[in-house]
Every structure is written in structure tokens, then in C-alpha cells.
Automatic annotation (TrEMBL):
It comes from the Eukaryota. This is Testis expressed 30. It comes from Dicentrarchus labrax. Residues 30-210 form the KANL3/Tex30 alpha/beta hydrolase-like domain. Gene3D superfamilies: alpha/beta hydrolase. It holds the Pfam family Abhydrolase_11.
Length: 224
């Protein structure tokens, strides 16, 4: 797996980004963009681990950092990264999946909705790791936070990976929201997983491997 640090132009600024690519780039047609939650950056170990897993499976993975806590601003940054990825000349990218962790998955869902209004094949699917359906103990916020997900079109595949003990994603509420979505949804519940996808009594590596396998298997199914 090759690893390159990049600066992605965003208005008058630049976003820190990192590209993981397979050893052979000539057969790469699928790319994934990932970003972090509130208070993190692109080097959060789940994102690094998933990026390497994806690259080992033959996908490009572009991670980026945008620390703003304003969702609208983060969506604009995400769009700049999406534009940048499409402009990379040395790859023939046919499919782009977008995703992220926690607040980053909210930004991905919002961008997916915007892009799907503009074109049918802009986004191949959305990956939501620990989607923050509501703040801790404030389950009433779930309608507002899931609005963009419910607005995604029928042809859009969406994967949720959430821990059963996530205090920002009540399981009953997420299952109910998924029923309201038009998109093609799969949910993987990590048994005992927290919002940070850690599980008491399990090593981080074993949890990361399990999550990565789920994401990669789901992506391969979308392209079969």
C-alpha cells in the first residue's frame, strides 16, 4: 500500500489529506473518501486502519482533516475534496463512496444528498461509522439529524456501523429511522461497541479488523 500526504485546495486555504493507494494503480476504479468526527482528525486510528484495508483490497482511499464544528462548513470542505479526487489524472475512478466517522458521517450524508440531486451517479454509496443520531441523552434530536439520510434516493446504498452501546445512537431509534429511509440500507451492530467503536474485553485491532471486513464486503456487494 502506497501512502501520500496531500494538500487539497479549499477556497483560500488548504485541507490536510492523505491518499492510500494499492500497489498497482492501473486497475483502480473505486475510491472512498473518509473524514473524522468532532474533535479528531484524519489520523484517527479507525480511519487509518480502514484506509489501509481498502487499499489492500484494491481501492483508493482519501482521508482529510477539517476541524470546523459547523456542519455546513464541513460539507463544503467535503465537496472540495470530492472535486479534488475527481481531478486526479493518474486514476480512472468510476465509483466514489463517501463516508466518515460520527460528525464526519453526517457531513457525508448531507453531501450525498446534495450530489444525488445534481447527478445520478455522483456517489456510489455512503458509509456511516458511528452516525451521531442524537447528542448523549438527547434522543429528541434524532429527526433533525437524520433528515438528509431520509432524503437520500432509492438507488443510494448506505451502510451504518454502530456499537450497541453507543450513547449517541439509540438502537431502537436508528432501526425506526432506517425503516423511513428510501435508500438501500444495511446496518452492522458491533456487539458491546461504544461511540468510539471500542468493546470492553476486546483488543482494538480485533474490532478494527471486524469493522473493516464489514465495510469492504458491503462495498464489494454494491459493485458486484
Amino acid at each position: 500500500v502506497a501512502h501520500t500526504n496531500l494538500k487539497v485546495p479549499f477556497g483560500t486555504k488548504y485541507l490536510d489529506a492523505a491518499l492510500c493507494s494499492p500497489a498497482s494503480v492501473k486497475d483502480v476504479h473505486t475510491a472512498v473518501i473518509l473524514t473524522h468526527g468532532a474533535g479528531g482528525d484524519m489520523n484517527f486510528k479507525h480511519l487509518v486502519s480502514l484506509a489501509h484495508g481498502l487499499a489492500s483490497d484494491g481501492c483508493l482511499c482519501l482521508r482529510f482533516t477539517c476541524k470546523a464544528l459547523n456542519l455546513g462548513y464541513r460539507v463544503k470542505a467535503y465537496r472540495a475534496v470530492w472535486d479534488y479526487l475527481k481531478s486526479l489524472q493518474k486514476f480512472t475512478i468510476k465509483h466514489i463512496f463517501i463516508g466518515g466517522r460520527s460528525m464526519g458521517s453526517r457531513a457525508a450524508a448531507t453531501l450525498a444528498r446534495q450530489l444525488s440531486d445534481e447527478s445520478e451517479d455522483a456517489v456510489q454509496g455512503v458509509i456511516c461509522l458511528s452516525f451521531p443520531l442524537h447528542p448523549p441523552a438527547q434522543t429528541h434530536a434524532h429527526q433533525q439529524r437524520s433528515e438528509d439520510l431520509r432524503g437520500l434516493p432509492e438507488r443510494m446504498p448506505v451502510l451504518f456501523v454502530s456499537g450497541t452501546e453507543d450513547n449517541m445512537c439509540d438502537r431502537v431509534l436508528l432501526d425506526a429511522m432506517v425503516k423511513e429511509m428510501k435508500a438501500q440500507v444495511e446496518v452492522f451492530w458491533l456487539k458491546g461497541g461504544s461511540h468510539g467503536l471500542t468493546v470492553k474485553g476486546r483488543s482494538d485491532d480485533s474490532v478494527l479488523d471486524e469493522v473493516n471486513l464489514q465495510v469492504i464486503a458491503w462495498m464489494n456487494k454494491q459493485q458486484a
